[in-house]
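Q: Hand in one record:
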Amino acid sequence: MRAAVLTGAGALRIDRVPPPSPGPGQVAIRLEGCGVCASNLGPWSGPDWMQFPTAPGALGHEGWGVVEALGEGVIGIAAGDRVATLSQHSYAEFDVAGADEIVRLPPALDGMPFPGEPLGCAMNILGRAEIAAGQTVAIIGIGFLGAILTRLATDAGARVIAISRRAFSLDLARAMGAAETIAMDDHHAIIARVSALTGGRHCDRVIEAVGKQWPLDLAGELTRERGRLVVAGYHQDGPRQVNMQLWNWRGLDVINAHERDPAIYRRGVREAVELVASGRLDPSPLYTHRYTLERLGEALDATRDRPDGFLKALVLFR
């Protein structure tokens, strides 16, 4: 099979290696594609803690495809089933996953890309945010995740204020149901605008979906007393400082919405499957850039540089 191997900072090669065989409790998956995640950008930059070369297919964790073979003891899954996988080496034509790391895709999704991990992540963030009808929800950062959360929060009956730096993203947020949009360019102007929109009360829920210091600072400022600040951004470039005086005074609930329990991940993916299959959520317009495996480096660079119109890159194998 072909598999991507990272060889250093901003460098990779495509190797031909034997496909992996499933062990007990595992399945082998012939991958159709894999989403490209911003969490890959830390390793792609070549930090001191990275070890090169990586294992074949490493870093790819948003794969989907067709079950090719079953390991010993696997029941309830058949060869030929189309699945989303939470496996970790999906920048390759084949990967293996535990039977508890896949979610079957129904016929309604045939032919559709389905990077289950980020879609499930959005569902889990929504659950941790505890969004309800009548709330005002600010979402800071309208990329792939922020756009989906805008749709989900709006459908839950919340009034969404979308805050992002790109005009393209703000247009998208409006299309996904945001009631208000604000350009992320002036810290104090944003606070004043949100205060005006909420009668000085600020927001019941604020979801930070960028992963940088300034948006985290801004999120605290926009959360009302006894409100909930939800950290959905992936903060991978070092420690953060927080305004604990503000957080204490307002009595904020601060939620780290990242999950590590595979069972919770699977639950989120199953919820996403149900929404997309029923037509209540259509993520397909958000997959804006598609690449072959040989162009994975370009996909990672685009994920980092975010050219105009970029939201989500997919690497497709067939």
In short: The first strand starts at residue 2 and ends at 8. The longest helix spans residues 262-278. The chain has a mean pLDDT of 97.
